[in-house]
Amino acid sequence: MMAETRDRIIVATNELFRRQGYNGTSLSQISEAANATIGSIYHFFPGGKEALGVAVIETTGEMFRELFESIANEAPGPAEAYVAFFAGAGTVLAESGYIDPCPIGTIAREVANVSEPLRVAASNAFASWISAATRHLTNAGIPTEQAEQLAHVFVATVEGTFVLSRTQRSTAPLESAGRCVSRLVTLAIDETQRTPTP
Amino acid sequence: MMAETRDRIIVATNELFRRQGYNGTSLSQISEAANATIGSIYHFFPGGKEALGVAVIETTGEMFRELFESIANEAPGPAEAYVAFFAGAGTVLAESGYIDPCPIGTIAREVANVSEPLRVAASNAFASWISAATRHLTNAGIPTEQAEQLAHVFVATVEGTFVLSRTQRSTAPLESAGRCVSRLVTLAIDETQRTPTP
DNA sequence: GTCTATAATTTGATAGAC
DNA sequence: GTCTATCAAATTATAGAC
Asked: The domain A53-194 belongs to what CATH superfamily?
């Protein structure tokens, strides 16, 4: 069965934004890729391109948060989760021909000083990832403040390795990042166990 | 004395790209901001917007590499260099009203699958930063392979924290990154000293 | 909900006088 | 080297029939 029009529009837009960015993608391209007329796009997104961008950011943000949580649940230990996450990203990146795995960071950099609705949507998406990672790390026994720090670095490193790996057409940065973030988590857990809460 | 026209064009374009991205910036805007006619732009950059983008990436890439090297030279120790670098970036970011400190990552994400000249220019810029950081870390005694890994993570974290800090309008991610990268460097040096080369 | 037609503007780029 | 004028094409967005 054919997907609902609204979903087709969001999926097609997501992929085009990942390939060409926000300003590099036109509504006519979206219309063609989604097999929906421009009239349909404005029917579902009366706010036009900007509202469509917000919807893409929100759905992608949720998707990545769920992906992280599912990987974290399946990993044998807290530190291993991060190796697995970056390894998975590397596979996806290479298989897709080095298309950006995530449209959020690209849109954010393009419009953070131009469109407040898009900036806020991106900020909320990042915040939800940071919360999920912080929760994961505090559950592993790491004190809140340090867990938040590591969560920030994790999310930043994800976005950073996406640019770097994609630009250099190499998964090496992703693998390095997996190892390093994992090492930081292990270190934090070790420290916690050596100095238990009074 | 008024700066040379070519320089004015590059400087103005750099700032516009940092604020609005590559595709979000038009030649007419550049013309106005640089106080140069469109004819002048095409006189200095016969390759048009794409050639101008390559020039912006190359000059910015060099500038950041020199900045890193100067901070690394002045820092009291290898690990401190990274804290200082991220702290400096935080100050610049906040003072500029959270304009992107670096146009390279934004352009790269927008066009990595669309313009090969721009992708290659960005890749070269990142590679020069990675080389500089690797040199810095091997000089501190860290084995080459591990130094390269850390250099990858450093550059990725720089680009990643730029997106995150800018989107969230907070310097917290930059500070966390400075501490974490610094910790990784300290750890690597300690390990090296515990297990000296045979 | 979907379609076609179109408005109003802007885009990157070129030509040729000065 | 710089200027004005201009090109063809594409852009977001809207209107109104179906």
From this structure: Tetracycline Repressor, domain 2 (1.10.357.10)
